[in-house]
């Protein structure tokens, strides 16, 4: 009689390597100030995040492939977990960038956090209404970044666990079927 | 931080120091270097705008907004205070106030630069173990 393979031996239940590890969040940071770019990059690295920093909203859109010049094909694998952008920037503001991201079908689900040195309530309201995840007053604190990271990681872990659980169910389902068939 | 720095730098500077570790022992000095390079550029732009005599208060305020922003990020409290005053004069359209306050901005900025140069010199002499605060 042939041995029935246990679920653990199936590739589908073991192979979660294709899933992004829930550990390293990739953050895109946008700020026109060179000092603030250095600072936010360090905050994020200390918080164990992968960081990409750009100096303008235009460059952020280029990076995401939303500037209309590139086709979206090359950007399928781009995994950004969070966008943090300064509000006041020359050219396109952080608010305008937020709107463009929320209009995009590819990136609208990515949380966008606005940073500003000015505590202006109508500004905060406008950003939150447009779908900003959070509004942080500058200078940003390490505690703020860690809080964001923790809540995002919880969300990622849930997704990761759901996929893993689903695969385990699929594998054990096949196992039961094979056992019943006595193959 | 030392008595000579009191009043010149606020908690934000200490936050920057907290971000240093064995792998990045010069982070604060790197930030300071960037700050002084960037602020020199802004000071120059404001100087030129003021020398022209045509007071474009929007433009001046814009420059100062940037200057104030980076000064805040490094914890330069006295410079920040003077920047705020300058912006107030811009909002009021007070040219004389702007000129006067800008001299103060430059003075505080120069003082801070000297103090930080001295501070980093001492830190380098003390050695990496003294300056790195964060444990892994």
TrEMBL record, chain A:
InterPro entries: ARR-like (IPR045279), CheY-like_superfamily (IPR011006), Sig_transdc_resp-reg_receiver (IPR001789). PROSITE patterns: RESPONSE_REGULATORY. It is found in: Nucleus. Residues 26-153 form the Response regulatory domain. Gene3D superfamilies: 3.40.50.2300. Pfam families: Response_reg (PF00072). Keywords: Cytokinin signaling pathway, Nucleus, Phosphoprotein, Transcription, Transcription regulation, Two-component regulatory system. The modification 4-aspartylphosphate is found at residue 86. One of its GO terms (cellular component) is nucleus. Belongs to the ARR family. Type-A subfamily. This is Response regulatory domain-containing protein. It comes from Brassica carinata.
Automatic annotation (TrEMBL), chain B:
GO terms for molecular function: histidine phosphotransfer kinase activity; protein histidine kinase binding. It comes from the Eukaryota. GO terms for cellular component: cytosol; nucleus. GO terms for biological process: cytokinin-activated signaling pathway; phosphorelay signal transduction system. It is found in: Cytoplasm, Cytosol; Nucleus. Transmembrane segments: none annotated. Coiled coil: none annotated. Pfam families: Hpt (PF01627). The modification Phosphohistidine is found at residue 65. InterPro entries: AHP1-5/YPD1 (IPR045871), HPT_dom_sf (IPR036641), Sig_transdc_His_kin_Hpt_dom (IPR008207). Residues 24-126 form the HPt domain. Keywords: Cytokinin signaling pathway, Phosphoprotein, Two-component regulatory system. Its main location: cytoplasm. Functions as a two-component phosphorelay mediators between cytokinin sensor histidine kinases and response regulators (B-type ARRs). Plays an important role in propagating cytokinin signal transduction. Histidine-containing phosphotransfer domain (HPt) contains an active histidine that mediates the phosphotransfer. This is Histidine-containing phosphotransfer protein.
């Amino acid at each position: 009689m042939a041995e029935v393979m246990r679920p653990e031996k199936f590739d589908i239940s073991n192979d979660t390597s294709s899933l992004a590890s829930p550990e390293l969040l990739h953050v895109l940071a946008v700020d026109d100030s060179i000092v603030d770019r250095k600072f936010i990059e360090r905050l994020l690295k200390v918080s164990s995040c992968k960081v990409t920093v750009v100096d303008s909203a235009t460059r952020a859109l280029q990076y995401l492939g939303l500037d209309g010049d590139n086709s979206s094909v090359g950007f399928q694998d781009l995994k950004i977990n969070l966008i943090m952008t300064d509000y006041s920037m020359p050219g396109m503001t952080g608010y305008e960038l937020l709107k463009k991201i929320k209009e995009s079908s590819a990136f609208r689900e990515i949380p966008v956090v606005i940073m500003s040195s000015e505590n202006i309530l109508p500004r905060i309201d406008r950003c939150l209404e447009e779908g900003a995840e959070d509004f942080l007053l500058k200078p940003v604190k390490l505690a703020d970044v860690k809080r964001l990271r923790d809540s995002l990681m919880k969300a990622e872990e849930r997704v990761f666990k759901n996929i893993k659980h689903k695969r385990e169910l699929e594998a054990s389902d096949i196992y039961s079927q094979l056992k019943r068939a006595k193959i | 931080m030392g008595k000579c720095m009191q009043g010149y730098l606020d908690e934000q500077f200490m936050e920057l120091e907290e971000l240093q570790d064995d792998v990045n022992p010069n982070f604060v000095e790197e930030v300071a270097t960037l700050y002084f390079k960037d602020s020199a550029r802004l000071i120059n732009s404001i100087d030129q705008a003021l020398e022209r005599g045509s007071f474009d208060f929007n433009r001046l305020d814009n420059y100062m907004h940037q200057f104030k922003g980076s000064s805040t990020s490094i914890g330069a409290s006295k410079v920040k205070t003077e920047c705020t005053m300058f912006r107030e004069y811009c909002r009021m359209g007070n040219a004389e106030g702007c000129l006067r306050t800008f001299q103060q901005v430059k003075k505080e900025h120069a003082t801070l630069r000297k103090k930080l140069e001295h501070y980093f010199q001492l830190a380098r002499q003390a050695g990496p173990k003294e300056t790195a605060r964060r444990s892994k």
